[in-house]
Amino acid sequence: MSQEHEAQLPVKCSGCGIKLQTENKEIPGFIPEVAYDRDPVICQRCFRIKNYNEASSVSVNQDEFLRLLSGIGEKNALVIHIVDLFDFEGSLISGLQRFVGNNPVILAVNKVDLLPKVTNLNKMRNWVQQRCKEHGMKTEEIILCSAKRNQGFDRLLESVTELRGQRDVYVVGATNVGKSTLINRLISDYSDLDQELTTSQYPGTTLDTVKIPLDDGHYIIDTPGIVYPWRYSELVERQDLDAVMPAQTLKPAVYQLNEGQSLFFGGLGRFDFVQGERQSFTCFISGTLKIHRTKLERADALYQEHRGELLSPPGTDRMDKLPQWQRHEFRINRGSNTDIYVSGLGWIKLNSTEGAVIAIHVPKGVKVLTRPSLI
After folding, report:
1. Of 44, 209, 300, 314, which residue is 20 to 30 A from 129 by alpha carbon distance?
2. Phi-psi region for residue 357, left (φ > 0), alpha (ψ -120 to 50) or beta?
């Protein structure tokens, strides 16, 4: 952008008050250069709300988001926290409770359509409830939904109607969890946008929230998506994102492994069966990500020889942009019902009553943990 154009660009969006910028459409305040001559000048997110009745997704880091949430506990608010069931622990805002105070929280668990159709949804809801309890999160209601298939959204809207009263509605969540789809549905159901909005009708608040007016004088507060660096969706290049994030129902891949065998998930991670009796492991990952089996003693050499080619994505040109792999070892007790979970990549379920020693190799910083089995 030329210095002359920079001088002409207003400092703040007339709609939400965020500082305007033309460099990155993924972060708050973005405005295309072709739009800065408009009067009044508003950011792309406000423009889409005003003209198309829909919100676009922007993101901030975790510290900025927590600063944004400070003070919400003193307000009369209903909070909708949307999480990704495929990446539950990676997308859950575990510190949310200390910010919301006594305000009610609806937990919208998105992407339930990815689970095999035989999944018992009541057991799934109980599983989510138990995970929330472990994270110290109180929820007024847990709703399993699918933004892609518009499943569960009617119940979600009913719950909002029941709990909203005289409250503003805050929608919070990590990036790539379906928050924009939910915001757009709320706008269409609760906000009277038949008449053209003026920017003064959705004044900005702190940082980069956008207040979307409801017909009763209250607001939907659209907060930016949080960037959590421990998720694969934040690590990989855009061209590899489709391979990591499943678009279709998961097809569990079952492997009977002997001690000393390994599985590669493309070039993104490795699972080692270090010790234990022969047993089966079920992999719940995106169907577009190829799994390669090899002997543990050959695994390091295979990775060095075929990384970015046979073991891809990422391709050779993007492989070195990821952090170095880190090894995580777990001892699984006999008879336990356990998943090895990797944030954004999926999980591996142990199917046997036998115990095992497992190692996971993933880029440093990716969240890896054990949990009671989801399915």
Report:
1. 209
2. beta
**CB-count exposure of residue 89 (10 Å: 0-12, 13-18, 19+):** buried
236, HSE (Cβ side, Cα atoms, 13 Å): 24
Alpha-carbon span 45 to 92, nearest angstrom = 24
The residues near 143 (Cβ < 8 Å, ≥ 6 apart) are: 106, 107, 108, 109, 152, 155, 156, 159
Six token digits for residue 69: 């949430």
pTM over 0.85: no
* Structural domains of the chain sorted by starting position, each given as residue range(s) with its CATH number in brackets: 55-227 (3.40.50.300), 234-372 (no CATH)
Q: pLDDT tens-digit profile of 201-253?
A: 333 333 467 777 777 788 888 887 788 889 888 888 878 888 888 989 999 99
β-bridge pairing 141-144 and 105-110: parallel
Secondary-structure breakdown of the chain: helix, strand, coil percentages, each rounded to the nearest 5: 30, 30, 40
Rounded distance between C-alpha atoms, residue 347 and residue 294, angstroms: 19
Q: Where are the alpha helices (DSSP H) in the chain?
A: 3-8, 44-52, 62-69, 88-91, 97-100, 121-134, 153-164, 179-190, 232-235, 238-244, 296-306, 316-319
Task: Find the Cα–Cα–Cα–Cα dihedral 319, 321, 180, 286, rounded to 10°.
Answer: 20
Contact yes or no for 62/228 (Cβ under 8 A): yes
